Amino acid sequence: MHAFPVSLPLEFTLGCADGKPGNAAELFESVSQNIKVKRYSEALNDLNAAIETDPALSEAYFHRASILRQLCRYEESEKSYKKFLELKPGNSIGEKELSQLRQAQSALETAFSLFDSRDHTKGLEYLDKVVLVFSPACSKAKILKAKLLLAAKYYSSVISETGFILKEDENNLEALLLRGQAYYYLADHDVAQRHYQKGLRLDPEHSELKKAYFGLKNLLKKTKSAEDNVNKGKLRLAVEDYKGALALDPDHLAHNVHLHLGLCKVLVKLGRGKDASISCSEALNIDGELLEALVQRGEAKLLTEDWEGAVDDLKSAAQKSPQDMNIREALMRAEKALKMSKRKDWYKILGVSKTSSVAEIKRAYKKLALQWHPDKNVDNREEAEAQFREIAAAYEVLGDDEKRAKYDRGEDIEDMGMGGGGFNPFGGGGGQQFTFTFDGGFPGGFGGGGFGFNF
Questions:
Q1: How far apart are alpha carbons 28 and 34 in whole angstroms?
Q2: What is the arithmetic mean of pLDDT over 223-245?
Q3: What's this model's pTM, rounded to 2 decimal places?
Q4: Which residue intervals define the domain J in the entry (predicted)?
Q5: Which residues are CB-neighbours of 391 under 8 A, at least 6 positions away?
């Protein structure tokens, strides 16, 4: 960082206008001491008094110009540099610092433009590499830097930068606001609230501080209402409260991640799997390591019958927390559901429900068997045989109380027509000969096929 001059260049100390170099030396030593403890106003007052006493004291103009430049009071600084150069034409140090002033002034204007255009990274570069090098005591630049850091979501850096500002001026309202906002976005709401309150005690009508303070109060109120409604079992009201809280500040990710998770859990309880999955995905987009969101999304996917998605989520959760028995139990349920989803749905094949009686299953089977008997479907015999085989296999399982109970529990059942040659209603190839004989036979009969039906 560019430092304030604490002693004069040699050429300045050789001849003062009043012929008394000792007096000038004492003056500039006092100025240097004031600068060291950041008493810039006192230093400027001493220099102004010296200039008023001796308008030809070039060194005083130089020091005044340097202090004003570093405070980024550029127009005043430029006038003092020019006056100094009138008294010391061609002085290289004065010309160099005047050039630095103009660079800093231009860079500060550019940084403000970049802030307006949301180019935060480049704005910070102009401040750090130019403005604060030549104007390290520029409060405007420091506040702008904090604003750029806040906009870029570097919240810890905002806290650090505003801390330096508040050490110099504990009542700086902009610094209190920015520091409060940084704590707010880190979800340290109590500390944020204290900063807003301090600012409002200094200026009760400060519009931005009021907006920030009451915005935070409203967010906390909505969040608490949602949580209270969950505890009371008022889940639909909780959903509305969570959504209302999320709508208040979509950028408050550190807090919204918990709102999304809370909403997801409530939606799972309500059986709204699709909506729950979306909410948990929003939480995971913010924090991909949030275990509970992963588990809840797995539960939500079970509700929507996304068996593979549920297994993937719950397996990932189990890997992150292998000792959690609840997660392992949920994973087992998901794996069982996935396995069951890949087997044939015999109820669907017969067109009956899981609560159908044996008599209803038998009637459905008889109707379909008659419909798809190969001898009755000469023109599409191959398709009919495939359909007939499925119908017979379904009945073999669902028509047997023991096999049906095992099937309903998701257990494996051997020789139930699911492949492997265990069941073949047409016989041949060493398979089982399956003979149907209806009482009284079919009207008109189905000859030649060797199929009878016996119920």
A1: 10
A2: 97
A3: 0.73
A4: 345-411
A5: 349, 350, 365, 368, 369, 372
